[in-house]
Design goal:
The protein has four helices and no strands. It is mainly α. The protein has a domain of about 70 residues. Helix 3 packs antiparallel against helix 4. The radius of gyration is 17 Å and the shape is flat. The N and C termini lie far apart (about 55 Å).
Length: about 100
C-alpha cells in the first residue's frame, strides 16, 4: 500500500510540475521546442512499452498500455505540428527540405 501512495504522490507532483512548465512557455517558442519534446516522449514510449509488456500485474499492463497510447499520440502530433510549421516556412521564403 505504501508503494501505491508513493507512486501516486510522485505522479501528481510530476503532473503539476509539467503543467506549470508548459503553461509558462510563450506561443512563439512552443513549436520549435516540439522536436525536443518528441525525443523525450520517444524515451517515455519505450518505457511504457516495457511496463505494458512486463506482465507483472493487470494494473501495470493497463496503465502501460494507456501510456503507450498517450505517448504515441503525443509523438505523432508533435511531428505533424513540426511538419506543418516547416511547410509554412518553406512557403514564406526558402526551401527547407
Amino acid at each position: 500500500m505504501t508503494d501505491v501512495v508513493t507512486n501516486l504522490t510522485l505522479f501528481v507532483l510530476a503532473a503539476f510540475l509539467g503543467y506549470s512548465i508548459i503553461t509558462k512557455i510563450p506561443a512563439t517558442l512552443h513549436t520549435p521546442l516540439m522536436s525536443g519534446a518528441n525525443a523525450i516522449t520517444g524515451i517515455t514510449l519505450v518505457g511504457a512499452v516495457v511496463v505494458a509488456g512486463s506482465g507483472s500485474s493487470t494494473l501495470a499492463t493497463a496503465l502501460g498500455f494507456l501510456a503507450v497510447v498517450m505517448a504515441t499520440v503525443n509523438v505523432v502530433g508533435g511531428y505533424l505540428v513540426s511538419h506543418f510549421m516547416l511547410e509554412d516556412f518553406s512557403k514564406a521564403g526558402g526551401d527547407l527540405s
